[in-house]
Amino acid sequence: MANRLSEDTHLSVLIIERGGSVLQNPLVYNTSAYGVAFGSAIDYAYQSAPQRYMGNKVETLRAGKALGGTTTINGMSYTRAEDIQIDAWQWIGNQGWTWESLVPYYKKGEGFQVPTPAQYSAGANYNALYHGKSGPLHVGWTWDMQNSTMHTELKRTYKHLGIPYLPDVNGGKMHGYSIFARTVNRAEKVREDAARAYYYPFASRPNLSVMLNTTVNRILWANQTGTFGPAVASGVEVTLSDGTVEAITANKEVILSAGSLISPAILERSGVGNPEVLAQHSIPLVINLTTVGENLQDQINTEFIYSSNVSYTGQGTYLGHPTASDIFGSNTTNVANDVKNNLANYAAKVSAASNGTMSAANLLSLFKIQYDIIFENPTPIAEVLVTPKGTNFYTEYWGLLPFARGNVHIASTDPLQQPTINPNYMMLGWDMQQQIGSGKFIRKLFNTAPMSEHTTGESTPGYTTLPSDATNAQWASWINSAFRANFHLVGTAAMMLRDMGGVVDTNLMVYGNANVRAVDASALPFQVCGHLMSTLYAVAERAADIIKAENYGGLSVQDGQGYV
Question: Residues in the active site (predicted)?
């Protein structure tokens, strides 16, 4: 977004980043090094609170500490949302936020790389209508794709399970089997993180600056909400790497893009949030906004490992998106009725967990929308990611649309102390139900020809740990012990109507103030089926146009297609 705003030479844009530059760091640019940076100096490695519904397990939540954020350490997966999930943003009061209105912004940032003949023969495929060609973000397939053998066998196996082949997952309909694209620069053979795409090629702009190794302490206010109208930010207070504290003036706006865990923490340290939370830390109240930090949503990830009679080299991104009917089959109606009958109980339980800051009535309205997305539309409820490596098939899967909601709140006024993070993993029946059902689907996948012909055994969890006739209780016990967080955290400064529990409005402006916005995953009101990155790029692209249109005489939001 800083890139887009600095296109206006009359503006001065400053990026404040707690981490450093990782442009030359092989843990970042090496596309086959996913996971190697975890636990390193460029991973915040936040720790969750003990998870009550998962045996008090403490989860590590990965997040990138670098210019470029988590795009420097993530899996580079470029998969968009299901169209109805973006349309749902408008259903909860965000006028103009629809799939159709967001597609131009997905395309605006994208510099799509058409597959080479070798990549195409290995399974890379696309629909040209879905992609942008001139954006700064390189999207495509790695130069070292695996050959077509695995693609062909998985494609046939999914077909035998009644799941179609989907040539391109990025058209708004995600049900099926695909080989998805990633954020890579094929020519340079490197990861394309946000900084490499949007900052470094434009770093010479005189009106675009960056402060590295600098921590934002809090927002500074020129006036607070009251007689003089909405609160107005005058800038931010920061701590430099040497410990010096400075105030930086913002003549126009302050835009938070610190993610679902830290953007709400900055708001709370700045006096914006639940008065009860702020009072615990003697922070003067500037804006009474009780739902700051609430509505936290994440998925849980579990892995199967199968041994193979073939050894695989190269990189493969083999993706399955089954729906509820694919997973539950003839029992889908019973599952749907069970969830529907429990929606009010789910809403009451989440409301109680938030100490009433999220009302049960509002939650029930949101949960009914989520129910319809899951059961009234062919929306995927799980992601199945098969990675052949050596003589193993590493198969991660996660339920995409949990109903659980948690929260994140500051633990002190010290910006270097991580907040208290409680995602409430598996607090509701559906959340475990979709994970168990998805696990059973994995076994069915690998026991269906032709994949079964390439599989010589299941090493994790294995049939000794989890027998073929395991009860749901046994499945739940294994999942509790084996799961990890999926690092897809959203919702803690949700874009919703204020009386529904929203923190930002349709222009991503924090309620009760005139010039502070949150533009990151915290603003997403719901989980989406795709990996968050592509949707966050699109939201940021649209936010830049919103800001230009409001304040600087730039393009109207409807002119987004002019950038494609």
Answer: 488, 531
